Amino acid sequence: MPPRPTRDDGGLRVNDQIRADRVRLVAENGDMMGVMLVRDALRAAADAGLDLVEISPNADPPVCKILDYGKYKYEMQKKANEARKKQKIIDTKEIQIRPTIGDHDYEVKLKAAKRFLEGGDKVKVTLRFRGREMANTQIGLALLRRFLEDVGSLGKVEMEPKMEGRQAMMVIASAVGK
């Protein structure tokens, strides 16, 4: 007979930790064995050489299953690790431009922004003004609008272009894969 777990790490009650008087028992093969006293369910689990695990504690009566608890915990951990691998962490990439940017430099920045958006990241476009460029901020805002148009269907505006001190910025979220 395998050793009985004394402590549970997954929030489930196991064997002697089960507090209910009666439980609905499910056998190791998935067959319903009906509602019975906990001591009878524990005896059935011990006869099978397995553990009694409280699967659904909020049910009335709580649902318990006869299974190998160590194996069950391992499977749950594997599922959690798989789910963690599959989730995409969205980063915010920043691209800095100037109002007097050249055509080729603009194309390079645009290509980088498209690559970031295709990868599922957000792009923060920062436009910095220096000296007398502050007198013509509308040129910079027009450049940001042009940048947004050139990105096209790859992204959608998350934060409209706005001025903050000597810089204008906007955030474009990826529209790919949603």
Helical content, roughly? 25-40%
The residue ranges in which pLDDT falls below 50 over 5 or more consecutive positions are 1-8
Determine the structural class based on helices, strands and strand pairing: alpha/beta
Order of strands, main sheet, comes to: 2-1-4-3
Write the H/E string, N to C: EEHEEHEHEHEE
Largest sheet: 4 strands, mixed
Give the arrangement of secondary structure elements.
Blueprint: E1 22-26, E2 32-37, H1 38-48, E3 51-56, E4 63-67, H2 69-86, E5 92-97, H3 103-118, E6 122-128, H4 137-151, E7 155-164, E8 167-174
Parallel strand pairs: 1-4, 5-6
Antiparallel strand pairs: 1-2, 3-4, 6-8, 7-8
Account of the protein in words:
With 178 residues, this protein is of the alpha/beta class. Helix content is 34%, strand content 30%. The protein is built from four helices and eight strands; from the N terminus they run E-E-H-E-E-H-E-H-E-H-E-E. It has helices at 38-48, 69-86, 103-118, 137-151, and strands at 22-26, 32-37, 51-56, 63-67, 92-97, 122-128, 155-164, 167-174. The strands form two sheets. A four-stranded mixed sheet has the order 2-1-4-3. Strands 5-6-8-7 form a four-stranded mixed sheet, covered by helices on one side. The chain is rod-shaped and about 85 Å long. The two termini are 51 Å apart.
Summarize this, please?
The protein is an alpha/beta fold. It has helices spanning 38-48, 69-86, 103-118, 137-151, and strands at residues 22-26, 32-37, 51-56, 63-67, 92-97, 122-128, 155-164, 167-174.
